[in-house]
Design brief:
three-stranded antiparallel β-sheet; 14 strands
Length: 640
């Protein structure tokens, strides 16, 4: 077999670039932005770069769609430029639509809507060349070609990227050449974006309509579908039917996970019979058409079980985004089932109907944003209204927080509306607010308050108060006069306490009679030089010189520090100290200089640890020390 020449490969690459410039350019933009983020160690708070990354990723598919539409339905250069300009306008609009760094309320739904658009574009790509007429064979062969190209492209990309990384590793190992570790992920980015896209589009046939006449169906695909997918399908159908029988016999409510399983089996079943579709028209394969109809007939009772399970949860907890999606897909699968049972053979109906449902669900008052958000806000208002916390659309006994005191919302504050809710309802209020904050935003509740909630959130974001321990939900709960943790959860929660000494930022420490001074933390003891000691310590009799020491920290097991000195282990139990400091912590925010002190006396040495700061967690089983820093003073016994 003659291998292709370099000239031929370059010719293919040039043709692909001229034919799909938008997709290849988008992949280059994606790679540049991703590599820049790797180089700068950018995190997910870099909104502009994240938005450009997502827009360029969609651009790869959108420009591919524009080119396929142009080649199928248009011919002139002007029409091509119009399609590309429209695609670019969509991408710019997308970039501006996604949340930016100045947005006060960033939540998940804009990214969910982005995902809907991305999936919809791929589904449109799958049908657009064969949307007209009855070219079902061409439609099937076209999607088979795309599917195989995706698999081959990713296989080649994986081999190329792994090979390059192994080559760099070999050079580093054999020639002791230093590479920046960032180079390794950057290679993966380059290969799986630019090379992956370029290689994929380079072998897309020009005349897609000719695929209608292609009848050489791969036998391996039929074997895979008939002898692997179909048996697995039957096994899961039997499992779900057995579970349905168990529900009827025991009269118990179905588990929520059954809805996901039914949807998964529906998708796998639909994919299986789509893969088998062209073989049904060949001799001896009439069973494929019959089994397709029987499959959807058998699926019908399971769909009733799906709707039963989801409506039970809608009645108990209202509609949320995931329940909306399950309900939407359940309706879509039901439509496809009825369509197939009636004997329809248009296999394009599956992707076309899914695109329509996805796009319809992303906008309007019926969308997966509006319906769940409005339902959960109504449920929250009903709970608060019955408890007397809200009246005439306003929170009673609202707690007004000065901007600079938001992070100081603590459990020792009395929340006036806590006592009005049972523990279970308190949890439900917290759960609803957390859901709204995560997926839709809480700004729809702002009219309930007299204070400016947007201003409070904006101030908290500017001062970087919002983190994994304190978020927007806590601000809203506090303003409602509710604590951010229910009574039962408060009993279980780990209590974190920070102890701070006054000497951390001000006066020198007066000490006498030491041999060594260490900078102390939970990991190590770093010996201080004499000139460093004099800048930090006050000691008129400081005539000591370093004697050298074998003292080291081995580990810390909960509140017990383990030291090792000249081969012998010594233990310092911090429990008593922590109990005393906790009592003092309730009375003052800081401790007088020298109060956060621990002493370890042994026959070999005496150790005094003067802490500047300590962070510890109190659990039901005791204390866990997270962090500590300070100074350690050592006196070696027997030394004059």
């Amino acid at each position: 077999m003659k291998l292709p020449s370099i000239k031929l490969l370059l010719s293919h690459a040039q043709s692909a670039l001229l034919r799909f410039p938008g997709s290849i350019f988008s992949s280059i933009v994606f790679a540049c932005v991703a590599i820049n983020m790797i180089e700068q160690d950018k995190d997910l708070e870099s909104f502009s770069q994240i938005n450009l990354l997502l827009s360029s990723l969609m651009g790869i598919s959108l420009f591919f769609l524009a080119q396929i539409v142009y080649e199928t339905y248009f011919k002139s250069l002007k029409q091509r430029l119009t399609l590309y300009a429209l695609s670019l306008l969509i991408l710019v609009s997308l970039f501006l639509y996604l949340p930016g760094s100045k947005d006060q309320f960033t939540h998940a739904f804009p990214y969910i809507r982005y995902l809907i658009f991305l999936i919809s574009i791929h589904l449109i790509i799958a049908v657009v060349p064969f949307i007209r007429g009855n070219k079902y064979n061409g439609f099937w062969n076209y999607n088979k070609m795309l599917f195989i190209r995706i698999i081959i492209t990713h296989l080649f990309s994986t081999v190329l990227a792994t090979g390059l990384l192994l080559a760099l590793g070999a050079i580093r190992l054999l020639f002791d050449v230093k590479f920046d570790d960032k180079l390794f992920p950057e290679i993966y980015v380059l290969v799986f974006t630019i090379f992956n896209t370029w290689f994929f589009v380079s072998n897309i046939p020009q005349d897609l309509q000719a695929l209608e006449n292609q009848t050489d169906y791969p036998s391996g695909l039929k074997v895979f579908s008939q002898y692997i997918l179909l048996p697995l399908l039957l096994i899961y159908l039997l499992i779900l039917y057995a579970y349905g029988g168990k529900i009827m016999l025991s009269w118990e409510w179905p588990k929520g996970v059954v809805s996901y399983l039914i949807l998964c089996i529906s998708v796998v079943g639909g994919l299986t019979f789509l893969l088998l579709y062209p073989y049904a028209n060949t001799s001896g394969n009439q069973w494929i058409k019959n089994s397709t109809k029987w499959y959807y007939l058998l699926l019908t009772p399971l769909l009733f079980l799906l709707f039963f399970a989801i409506f039970l949860r809608l009645d108990d907890y209202g509609i949320t985004l995931n329940r909306y999606v399950i309900l939407m897909f359940g309706i879509w699968v039901s439509i496809v089932s009825v369509y197939t049972i009636l004997g329809k053979i248009n296999i394009r109906f599956i992707p076309v109907s899914l695109v329509i449902i996805l796009l319809l669900s992303s906008f309007g008052p019926w969308s997966m944003d509006s319906i769940p958000k409005n339902d959960q806000q109504k449920r929250l208002e009903t709970i608060l209204d019955k408890a007397g916390i809200i009246k005439d659309g306003k929170i009673k006994e609202e707690m007004n927080w000065p901007k600079d005191s938001i992070p100081l919302i603590e459990r020792n504050i009395t929340y006036p509306n806590d006592r009005k809710l049972s523990d279970s309802l308190h949890k439900e209020v917290i759960s609803i607010l957390q859901y709204l904050d995560q997926f839709h935003g809480c700004e729809g509740l702002n009219d309930w308050f007299t204070q400016n909630m947007d201003s409070l959130v904006e101030n908290a974001q500017k001062k970087k108060w919002l983190d994994y321990r304190f978020g927007r939900t806590d601000i809203y709960l506090g303003a409602m006069g509710l604590s951010s943790i229910s009574e039962s959860e408060e009993a279980k929660e780990v209590q974190r306490t920070v102890f701070i000494s006054e000497n951390k930022s001000s006066k020198k420490i007066a000490v006498t009679g030491f041999d060594e001074v260490f900078i102390f933390n939970e990991y190590s003891l770093e010996l201080m030089k004499k000139e460093e000691r004099k800048s930090l310590l006050y000691d008129e009799d400081d005539t000591s010189d370093s004697v050298g020491t074998d003292l080291m920290i081995i580990s810390i097991e909960k509140p017990v520090l383990i030291f090792k000195y000249k081969g012998k282990e010594h233990f310092l139990d911090m429990t008593t100290y922590l109990k005393e400091w906790e009592i003092r912590r309730r009375e003052a925010k800081k401790y007088p200089s020298g109060e956060l002190k621990m002493v370890l006396d042994t026959t070999e040495f005496n150790l005094v640890i003067q802490l500047n700061e300590l962070t510890a967690e109190k659990t039901n089983t005791g204390w866990n020390v997270e962090r500590m820093e300070g100074l350690a003073f050592m006196k070696v016994n027997g030394r004059d």
